[in-house]
Amino acid sequence: MSDTKPIRHGEELDAKNLQTFLREKLDVKIGEIEISQFPGGSSNLTYCVKIGADEYVLRRPPFGNQVKSAHDMSREFNVLSKLSAVYKPAPKPLIYCDDETIIGSEFYLMERRKGLIIRGKSPTAETRALASGQSETLETSQDLRKKVVESFIENLANLHGLDYRKIGLENLGKPEGYAERQVTGWTKRYFNAKTDEHFELEKSIEWLNSNIPNSNGASLIHNDYKFDNVMLNPNDLTEIIAVLDWEMTTIGEPLMDLGSSLAYWMSKENGETMLSMPFNPRVLMENISRQELVEIYEEKSGKKVSDIVFYYVFGTFKLAVIAQQIYFRYTKGFTKDKRFATFNYFVNSLGKIALNAIEKQKI
Fold it and tell me: Side-chain half-sphere of 358: how many Cα atoms within 13 Å?
């Protein structure tokens, strides 16, 4: 069964122009091309381009994009070009195009990797894996659940441990003052996209701006690391086939990256609606806590985690701002995707989650 869907209305690509362009650029025989759309994601748009038996992935900015720096395809292409040479989960990019007359925007083409992305309730049939010669599932085995999560966190720690200077990405970001710039920058983004009053979120913004901790160092960070962006080997769920969506990658504070991952990790006290969101497999979130993720990170990275409430609250706030920006685009008619009509609810809920963590000083 295909994991792509027909292209959403208003997000079609010019297949004829793209076919002509690819015929010139790819060292393969180009006949008719087939284009479908990957259903996940709510920022950059991702398409499957099929040429005969070969499949590629095309990435482009969202329609109605008003912030070019937030959807810089050339930057993303550069990151993956260098990272894929040393970090196995990073897909290899193939072609970058800045000619907006081809499909209406810049874009890049990369290799397609196939694996399992576990979202939501994670049906038993899709989460089967062999362990010790016996068939187990995430639903039946706490040991398997723990191993999958350990692999997920270890992979993040491995990314943070890369020498970004050695692979030529030292100019990707400015680590000095990173946390302060992030809090200030995302605060401005929120108010620029504000549509409604969210008391708890704005109280959390005040707290974040007054409680920025000292730096814990700098590393290459993904900035949106979650199971929804991780592709697993369906026959061994502890093996990560690919990490996707590198648009927000930079050089910065590694604990802010961990905080972003924790923000996606909902728990029962966050409410049924938030727990049901398809950011991560529910079966993992219901059985493994955010605090356990932190402890695994400490073990795999060899570094002590401090000020984790700040980093978790920041991650939750940033997630709320991303949802707010998408909701703003929806209210302005830049996207017709009905998925985004309820994002205002998520902004409000995330604000409550953040303020609750501040008041309890607990993640």
Answer: 24
Which amino acid type is present at position 300? Answer: K
DSSP alpha helix (H) spans, the chain: 15-25, 73-83, 142-160, 178-192, 199-210, 254-264, 272-275, 282-285, 290-301, 308-331, 343-360
pLDDT per position as a tens digit, 177-193: 999 999 999 999 999 99
Long-range contacts formed by 134-138: CB under 8 A, 24+ apart: 138/237, 138/281, 138/283, 138/284
Instruction: Report whether 220 contacts 249 (CB < 8 A).
Output: yes
Lowest mean pLDDT among 40-44, 75-79, 124-128, 346-350: 124-128
* Host H or E run for residue 29: none
The rounded Cα 303 to chain-centroid distance in angstroms is: 24
Q: Take residue 5 and report the two structure tokens written for it.
A: 């869907």
For the chain, what is the radius of gyration of the CA atoms? Answer: 20
